[in-house]
Amino acid sequence: MRKISFALVGAAALALSACGGKGDDSLGENVQENMENAADALDTAADNAATNAEAANLANQADALRNAGDNAKQAIDNADVNAQQVNGM
Q1: Is residue 66 one of the residues assigned to a domain?
Q2: Which UniProt keywords apply (predicted)?
């Protein structure tokens, strides 16, 4: 599961580096939504975990993934603002 979160964060970073300056609100929302969906899958896995420790670990991973999604969305939105300022828009 850790590989999934690294892949999603990597995808968010790639999307962030590709954004040009305008209209990336939907991009940030898409990244956040994808991470939310992955976190929901972790929650489902936690519900079906064999032990309480495994369930807690999966739940913590889901929380971390949701936080990463929020941070990625904010970074993408901030990049839009910064690009507008640099480009004089």
Answers
A1: yes
A2: Coiled coil, Signal
Q: Report the C-alpha gap between 34 and 76 in whole angstroms.
A: 14
The model's pTM: 0.66
Query: What's the CA gap between 19 and 34, in Å, rounded?
Result: 17
pLDDT of 76 over the 80 cut: yes
Provide the total of helices (H) and of strands (E) in the chain, helices listed first. Answer: 3, 0
| Within-domain flag for 22 | no
Total of domains in the chain: 1
Most distant CA pair in the chain, distance = 56
Query: What is the per-residue pLDDT across 17-52, written as a single tens digit (0 to 9) for each?
Result: 555 455 557 888 999 999 999 999 999 999 999 999
| Residue that wins the pLDDT comparison between 78 and 22 | 78
Considering the domain boundaries, does residue 12 fall inside one? no
User: Whole domain around residue 47: which residue ranges?
Assistant: 30-73
60 belongs to a structural domain: yes
Tokens at 57, concatenated: 């670990």
